[in-house]
Amino acid sequence: MSPIIDVEHLNYRYPQQAADQLTLTDISFSVAPGEWVAVVGHNGSGKSTLAKNLNGLLAPESGTITVAGQVLSAETVWDVRRQIGMVFQNPDNQFVGATVEDDVAFSLENQGIPRDEMLTRVAQALKQVNMQDFATREPARLSGGQKQRVALAGMIAARPRILILDEATSMLDPQGRAEVLQTIRAMKANSELTVLSITHDIDEAASANRILVINDGHLEEAGTPAEIFAHGEALINLGLDMPYAERLKAALKRQGVQVPTSYLTEKGMADWLWQLRSNK
Ligand SMILES: Nc1ncnc2c1ncn2[C@@H]1O[C@H](COP(=O)(O)OP(=O)(O)OP(=O)(O)O)[C@@H](O)[C@H]1O
C-alpha cells in the first residue's frame, strides 16, 4: 500500500537562520493510510516546524513531501490542505467564527456542504467533544481546554483524511485528554483516518501505532510504543512526560514526603494517598 504521507530528505531553515543552520535536517519517514503516528521530542526540537511543512505553511529548503500521492508544491498546496485537518496547540489563532457553532461550520461552508447536513455535522461534532452547551458562545471567551475541544470539533465535522494534532490536548486535564483520545479512536473506527499527533503526553503516544522521536531537528528514532517505552526513564530525555503518578510522586518527594520507590499506576497512587491520609 502506498503511504499517505511520504517525507524524503526534508531540510528546513527559517529565513533568518544562517545558511549552515537548519531547523530540520534530513528527515525521512512515511505514514501508511489509517496509521496513527505520534511525534515526540524536546521543546524546540522542530516538531511544529515539521507539522507546518507537511501542510505547506512552511516550504522546505530541500527534500520532497508527498501527501495522498501529490508532491507538495506551490501548485498543489491547496489540494493537499483539503486532505489535512490541523489542530494547533494554541487554538486562538485558528478561530474564525463569531460563535462556537459558526467556527465549527466554517470549513464545511468552504467545502460546499448543504446546510442541513452542515447543521447535523456541527451538532454531532460538538456533542462528541462535550461542547454542545456552548454552541452559541463566543470562542474567545472559552477556557484553553474548551478552545482545544472546539478546534477538534471543527476537524471532526470536516472529516479530513489526515488529522495533524500539534499538542492539541495540552490544555486539557487527564480526563479531558482521555475523552479526546477516545473520540479520535471512534473517528478512526468509522473511516480510514490517518493521525499524526505531536505530543508530550505518554497516553497519547501509547495510543499510536508508531512513535517518531525528533531530537534537535533530526529523526532520532522510530518504533512501536512498546519499543520506545522500553527506554524507561530515558523517556524524559526523549521529550515525553513522565506518567502523572510518577510526576506527583516526584513533587511529593520534593516536599519531604516518603514515597514508594516502585512504579504506581494512577489507581495505585490514589490508594496509597488514601492510606497516607488515614494513617495521619
Ligand atoms: N518563526 C520562527 N522563526 C525562527 N525560528 C523559529 C520560528 N519558529 C520556531 N523557530 C525555532 O525553530 C526551532 C524549532 O521550533 P519548533 O516550534 O518547531 O519546535 P517544537 O519541537 O515544536 O517545540 P515545542 O514543543 O516547544 O512546540 C526552535 O529553535 C525555534 O526557536
UniProtKB/TrEMBL annotation:
Membrane topology of the entry: Peripheral membrane protein
Ranges in coiled-coil conformation: none
Organism: Lactiplantibacillus modestisalitolerans
Native organism taxonomy: Bacteria, Bacillati, Bacillota, Bacilli, Lactobacillales
Top-level division of the source organism's lineage: Bacteria
Any one GO molecular function term: ATP binding
InterPro entries: AAA+_ATPase, ABC_transporter-like_ATP-bd, ABC_transporter-like_CS, ABC_transpr_CbiO/EcfA_su, ECF_ABC_transporter_ATP-bd, EcfA_1, P-loop_NTPase
UniProt keyword terms in alphabetical order: ATP-binding, Cell membrane, Membrane, Nucleotide-binding, Translocase, Transport
Family: Belongs to the ABC transporter superfamily.
Principal localisation: membrane
Domain ABC transporter, first and last residues per copy: 5-241
Protein name: Energy-coupling factor ABC transporter ATP-binding protein
Family annotation (CDD domains): ABC_cobalt_CbiO_domain1 (cd03225)
Gene3D superfamilies xref list: P-loop containing nucleotide triphosphate hydrolases
PANTHER family: ENERGY-COUPLING FACTOR TRANSPORTER ATP-BINDING PROTEIN ECFA1, HEAVY METAL TRANSPORTER
SUPFAM superfamilies registered for this protein in UniProt: P-loop containing nucleoside triphosphate hydrolases
Subcellular location: Cell membrane
